[in-house]
Amino acid sequence: MNKKQIDILNDYFLHSVLRLISQEEQCLRRICSPDLSIRELHVIEAAACLRAQSRSTMAEIARYLHLSPASLTTAVNVLVKKGYLEREYSAEDRRMIHVRLTEKGETANRKYLDFVRNMLYEVSSDLDEDTADKMIETLLRLSDYLDRAQEEA
Fold first, then answer.
1. Which of 31, 43, 89, 141 sits 20 to 30 Å CA-CA off 150?
2. What does each C-alpha distance from 79 to 20, 35, 75, 83, 139 come to in angstroms?
3. What global pTM score does this model have?
């Protein structure tokens, strides 16, 4: 990669990522529900994804989202109050709390997943398979780098 390309990527990571996240959140508020933040949508999506794997406990969701249990508890409390999630206590072990989506939560999650699929299709529709594979490989390397950097911190 040449210096100009590195400068462009540096500018993107320093300035554009936050703007893109803000724009995505505005779109999602319009499409999914005006009372949901992007972080709340991530909690809903994680609960749905882990529920499909029979791993929808508070501990599993916190681990999946890289959140502290206290942060997740706060988010789940808000989402329960808004009517998107419900808590279920395990019959075998009352300390085990499962989270499940309400109908309202299912609808919001479906709209969120549709938005993400459409967004990815739209921005990648002109990529050939090799370019798409290289992009995916690069993003996976970025994720691995950040995981390692976080462990070293």
1. 43
2. 24, 10, 6, 6, 31
3. 0.82
